[in-house]
Amino acid sequence: MLYSSITPEQKRRDLRDGLASGSLQQFPGAFNPLSARLIGDKGFDGVYISGAVIAADLGLPDIGLTTLTEVAHRAGQIARMTDLPCIVDADTGFGEPMNVARSVQELENAGLAGCHIEDQFNPKRCGHLDGKNVVDLETAVKRIRAAADARRDPNFLIMARTDIRGTDTLEATQDRSRALVDAGADAIFPEAMRSLDEFRAIREAVDVPILANMTEFGKSSLFTADQLQEVGVTLVIYPVTLLRSAMGAAERTLDSIRAHGTQEGVVGDMQTRSRLYDLVDYEGYNRFDSSVFNFEVPDGVRTRPPASAPAPAPNAEKEQP
Question: What average pLDDT does the chain have?
């Protein structure tokens, strides 16, 4: 009921344990708090919060228009509704190294288990679009070092995302990944890898967990969990999958209403009322409500004046009996 009973500190420990387990961790992307609850209900290992999804939810393209305040607020709303650890996309850290440091602490305060910070120019663009530009190695290293130095909980995961494969060779991606680990990155997110062999090459280059982004319509094929684990990937995200699925279903429903004048033909595809009530735990709220309001207030007894009664004047004389 209400929010998760598991503390952010415990979720961060759970994330570290999962990454060290040797089993591939699957993190679907949540587009709102209720979808995060659903991800947990289906038995996944964690929740991913995509910057592209937060932007799209606001009707914006993924080109760095969202602010730290918006991302921390929405990510916090999602994280507090699930018992699973949540990793959030922190774009380029929302500014210079000092801004990166503040971003990490704000995300800690919001209850996240970790974040990733990328090496694109600001404003950035979606990692699977052409025409990306990455910053020089010194700037990329400063961002990660600032993030690692700023965190207060040592279990908060600092992941470095590198987009350099879109502009340079696989060997350059390996070299940059090593430098980012040396700067303090706990994990590496090599964006837009083109094959399983490329993921294997990053695995061979660094001795920290690596992430695979299995986004639809991108530059990477949609490899299976078994294929990714075989080449040494530690964590896989499906960042926009649920949003695309939900919006696709919503569009089909609207088309049906326009075409037929009723939603009757698509009701069978909808989440039922009982399933929705189960996810938001109506029963738990009802039990809590009954346990609190299980008495009657005797006549003539009030804990405070009724709303319509004027407040007594200061130092007013007491009414004589």
Answer: 91
